[in-house]
UniProtKB/TrEMBL annotation:
Organism: Domibacillus iocasae
Required cofactor names: FAD
InterPro entries: FAD-linked_oxidoreductase-like, PRODH_bac_arc, Proline_DH_dom, Proline_oxidase
Protein name: proline dehydrogenase
Keyword annotations of the record: FAD, Flavoprotein, Nucleotide-binding, Oxidoreductase, Proline metabolism
Length: 305
């Protein structure tokens, strides 16, 4: 049943008609519930409110798979301006972005050029930039780009997905660089050739990655709403005396807000992933596909707001 639900929401995420309808008529439904706002300026109040509650943030301008250099340039400028506004508004926020939004599917040199401009700005204002991971066909290119930029800049991090077989080896390689890593279970539909098909195996691998990353000394973002994974991390921290400032929990805006607050009160760092922009529909469907329990959390949050 879970696989059917996942496939259903992934199918919906790719429906162009529904995506356009959501963009044109339903953005008011998502704003303040699923996304911070339709642009970064309109998201600032949301971010400040989260910061006031003791929650850190990472923001993401929604929109990927860019197929023109002009749009990639626009996304680059958007990210640069966002970094500057984070600094000016004194927000406790990082920036997350996808390499396809900067032109990965067009030309690698274009991505390097655009990302270099972003990271130069990030270094100037001391704002962390996280390269989000996409599907397995873009995984190696993303890791290669991260390694290239990590040698040059300090304000850069990336994401590893627990459902991929390759990730344990990727973690071992990247740990040599003592990176800031966000660990997620994974939200894309991949074949059994590349990814664990069973949830139990993904969970087991996720716990293994959390342990290996923390013991390697990496600053680690454990991005999950799964309380079993959260409790595992807490147990790991106590068992191995991991400093509380070596990791953080990360959750999605609008989901598990009570759990976020409870973790803050317990003394843990918590970062909320706040997307913004008009292209919210596909993002929302993928989050629902990622874990069926998110469906209940998401709609509970929508009703309460």
């Amino acid at each position: 049943m879970e696989a059917v639900t996942r496939d259903f929401f992934l199918f919906l995420s790719k429906n162009k008609t529904l995506n356009q309808l959501a963009k044109n008529r339903c953005s008011h439904f998502a704003t303040g519930k699923i996304i911070g706002g339709t642009d970064f300026a309109s998201s600032i109040a949301c971010i400040k409110a989260l910061n006031t509650q003791g929650l850190s943030v990472t923001v993401d301008h929604l929109g990927e798979f860019v197929d023109s250099p002009e749009i990639a340039a626009e996304r680059t400028e958007e990210c640069i301006e966002t970094i500057k506004m984070i600094y000016t508004e004194k927000l406790d926020s990082h920036v997350s972005l996808k390499m396809t939004s900067l032109g990965l599917d067009i030309d690698r040199n274009l991505v390097v050029q655009n990302m270099t401009r972003i990271l130069e700005t990030a270094e100037q204002y001391d704002i962390m930039v996280t390269i989000d991971m996409e599907d397995v066909t873009r995984c190696q290119a993303t890791i290669d780009l991260f390694k290239q930029f990590k040698d040059l800049y300090k304000n850069i991090s990336t994401v590893l997905q627990a459902y991929l077989y390759r990730t344990e080896q990727d973690l071992a390689e990247l740990s040599k660089m003592k990176p800031f890593l966000r660990l997620v279970k994974g939200a894309y539909k991949e074949s059994p050739k590349h990814a664990f098909p069973d949830k139990a195996d993904v969970d087991t691998n996720y716990m293994k990655l959390i342990e290996k990353s923390l013991l390697a000394g990496n600053y680690t973002g454990i991005a999950t709403h799964d309380e079993n994974m959260i409790e595992f991390t807490k147990t790991m921290q106590r068992k191995h005396h991991i400093p509380l400032d070596q990791f953080e929990f990360q959750m999605l805006y609008g989901m598990r807000t009570n759990l976020q607050q409870a973790l803050v009160k317990q003394g843990y760092r918590v970062r909320v992933y706040v997307p913004y922009g008009m292209d919210w529909y596909g993002y929302f469907m993928r989050r629902l596909a990622e874990r069926p329990a998110n469906i209940a959390f998401a709609f509970k949050g929508i009703i309460q707001k």
